[in-house]
Specification:
It contains nine helices and five strands, in the order H-H-H-H-H-E-E-E-E-E-H-H-H-H. The chain is α+β, with helices and mostly antiparallel strands and about 400 residues long. Strand 3 and strand 4 form a beta hairpin. The protein is elongated, with a radius of gyration of 32 Å.
Length: about 400
């Protein structure tokens, strides 16, 4: 018993460093990909850095739910690869420890991570997904800030086009400016001024442009003979600019990814009472319910896959572990997405669709362990045979 505890502790310590390393690396890769995708939607909107950090922090929830099973696979591959490369598995086998006994501590770790992910998926992930969706909508509605550039036509103002020969960015002063006014389609106009002061009034959600020494030209689109020219020393032009200020809105609606499994199951029961018209929506909820348990369970399945592959790889390098992990995770994810689509179309039951990848990879992992154990026994008998022939 004492020897078993020492071996188990040693194996767990072998697992933890590559797990945290792989988890950090996978999280960073997915997060960087999200940043690149969102950069064009966020840039130029003048958002508070805190809001940007909050948005990416909220998205860390679903990234964590994906990164943990992948990290388990990478860590298991690296740990067994290192033990195999240094002949420690051979030494442990000579002491009477089988491959299955070596896998048990990792299965316990996988089961623990599975439980934690299930709790995370039902208690934390729904709220984070909800807040992320609401914040994403708020960011999408906010219009970009006004970028003033000398000698460049500015189209950011609704129904107005602005051009200035010279701009003082610090004091928001514009010199030798021209404004094309299309706020009234029947009476489009052109305003020119020697200089102007531009200020944004938050209460009105509008720009106030104080113009000096200029003139206004206006025509009637329906009457070509009508033309008006007005000179002024000072004139105030008010330009409405809705959604230039970031406004946080609340939303009581929650999609299936923003609910816990018990909450979704309650809605499923209510929809079943209403009849079969909601079959597609019921399947969508059932898919998400099973997904909240099938993806965490992949932590156990990936231990079954990673252990024999690590022994066969005979290397503990991150390159081999990463490439094999990516391959099997892509296979797993392809089956998961395909199953989700089939379940939504009522071709396959939600339970079968979400648990089929675990069943398939779990079976492959079990067969690999059995075959690896059998091959190891044959190698041991071959070594014994060679030693016997030498003595004879």
């Amino acid at each position: 018993m004492f020897r078993t505890k020492i071996i188990s502790r040693y194996l767990i310590l072998e697992f933890l460093p590559p797990f945290f390393y792989a988890f950090s690396l996978i999280t960073m890769i997915i997060l960087l990909n999200l940043i690149v995708q969102m950069l064009s939607k966020i840039a130029g909107k003048g958002l508070d850095p805190y809001l940007i950090m909050e948005f990416f922090f909220l998205n860390l929830a679903w990234i964590t739910a994906l990164a943990v099973p992948m990290a388990v696979l990478v860590a298991t591959l690296m740990a067994f690869g290192r033990l195999s490369a240094d002949n420690e598995i051979t030494a442990l086998k000579s002491a009477g420890v089988s491959l299955w006994q070596l896998i048990v501590p990792y299965l316990i770790l996988g089961a623990l991570l599975c439980y934690l992910l299930i709790e995370f998926g039902n208690r934390v992930l729904p709220d984070f997904n909800h807040r992320s969706r609401v914040l994403s909508g708020d960011i999408r509605r906010k219009k970009p800030t006004l970028a003033l550039e000398e000698g460049i036509f500015i189209f950011d103002l609704p129904h107005y086009v602005l051009w200035a020969q010279r701009i003082d960015q610090r004091q928001s002063k514009l010199y030798s400016l021209v404004i094309y006014d299309e706020s009234d389609p029947r009476y489009p106009g052109v305003v020119s001024a020697a200089e102007g002061d531009l200020n944004f009034v938050r209460e009105e959600e509008a720009f106030h442009l104080q113009l000096y020494n200029g003139e206004m030209h206006r025509q009637d689109a329906k009457d070509p003979g009508y033309y008006q020219r007005t000179q002024f020393e000072r004139s105030l032009l008010r330009i409405p600019a809705p959604n230039m200020i970031f406004e946080h809105q609340e939303s009581g609606y929650r999609s299936d990814r923003e609910l816990s499994a018990p909450e979704m199951w309650k809605q499923v029961q209510e929809m079943k009472k209403e009849g079969s018209k909601n079959r597609r929506r019921i399947n969508s909820f059932l898919v998400e319910i099973h997904k909240k348990y099938s993806i965490p369970f992949a932590c156990i399945v990936f231990v079954l896959i990673g252990a024999p592959l690590g022994v066969r790889a005979h290397r503990g390098g991150i390159g081999v572990a990463a490439s094999l992990s990516v391959f099997f995770f892509l296979v797993y994810w392809a089956f998961l997405i395909g199953g989700e689509d089939l379940a939504d179309r009522n071709i396959m039951t939600p339970a079968m669709a979400m648990w089929a990848p675990n069943a398939l990879l779990g079976l492959i992992g079990t067969l690999l362990i059995v075959r690896t154990t059998r091959e190891a026994r044959l190698q041991d008998w071959a070594i014994i045979g060679r030693l016997f022939r030498k003595k004879v």
